[in-house]
Predict the structure.
Amino acid sequence: MKKLLILSLSALFMVACSQDEQELTAPADSAFDLKAFDNSNFGIYEGVFTTDKGDKRATVTIKILDEEVAMATLYFSDGTTTVARSTSPILKGEAIDLVSFEGKEVSFNFSADVDGSNATVSNVIYLKEAADIITAKSTSRAPVTSLTGTYICNTCGNPNPRTFNVMISGDGTGDQTYTAQTSFNGNTFNGNGAQSGCAAAGNFDYCDINDTGSITVGAGSVNWSGTVIYGNGLADCGQLIGQWYFTGSANNKSGIFATDQRCTGIIAAEDFESTPGAYTTSTAEFTDGGTDFFLRTDGSDIGGAYVVDNIVENFFFAAQDIDGEGATLPAYLEFTDITLVTGNEQLFVDLLLAEDDDGSNQDWDDSDNVIVQYSFDNTIWTDIIAIEGELGGSTFNNTPRVDTNGDGFGDGKEVTNVFDNFVGTFQNNSTTNPSGSGTVSIRIQFQLNSGDEDIAIDNFYLLEEVN
């Protein structure tokens, strides 16, 4: 039995271990009433900061509470802070036009409309080097969540983490907009995105997050998608984890990103990039070089007609027509006896899924499914995420979707030919884990028994609630 790959955030992102216990948004007076300044140029502006080199990042809070002096505070990911103050009065009820903020380490110009909208920061200098700040007015209708983070690229020649910050406008419970701030090759790029598909689970809300337009970088473009998790109730947190893709050059690149702030710790992961992997299989991996396969692959040892997009790095796990070569169904991909770090808590399975889309004629029959399950005793298995063909006019060739109500038919998020995040949650408590086991096993069950029925899996994570 192969030992499961256990990762900490520091191993995955190097600098994420410098978590500084900052709140979901940068510290502000808990008694401050945002609503009192909803339609004013006064109030609280939240945002994110990065140097163009990407070696420093911070959340930003700009407080404009009177006409005397406004103050901006940068809360760096390493736990340090720096302050800048306005050098001229800001008059209530008037537009703010390029007011200068000066501090020992940072300076910039700030502008906003009379109601606080269209806030912009320009000419940002940090320790005599170029930098960037994006900000927005935080209101009672649309509070701003600022999250700092990093991205990595293992195939770019420079594996060091670089800035990937996110500023989300909304209350964290439904559809919202956001802006991503990234550094690359000494420049800063900003792009827009949207949050959707939110679901509540225990102490958390989790949502899909996707760009609404790629960032142009030279002759190429960058797209990204991921999952954002918010605390609701006991937990006060915000976390985003996902993947990005650079296309349009001779050598496409891809990688992962994550925020410094976190609701969960990554206790297990598998990216399928190296062997031996952190998983076992119920049947030996195989391929006929064409349409029957069950293996880790980079696409070179299966049929060229099999296409899935937005592959992170090079390898993924794929399965199609598993019994076509005599394998017994269902087949399993298993992560066995993962050590749990804490006690009673909520756990998340986050993974990428795709399938070879056959255009308008989807391939899944009623008998096909792929189900992610958990067990604390390796005997009783409980479903976390079930992918089933949707209920159609025929029992054949339907669209694979998440089965949200357990009736054996897909009715939720669709699995397409583009890798996308899918998240499921479960509890570790006296009901689900009556023996108090300190380990949990995750397995993925494959029931794909006809031609063209397939699934592709990448970037599996098991996340554990941070208490």
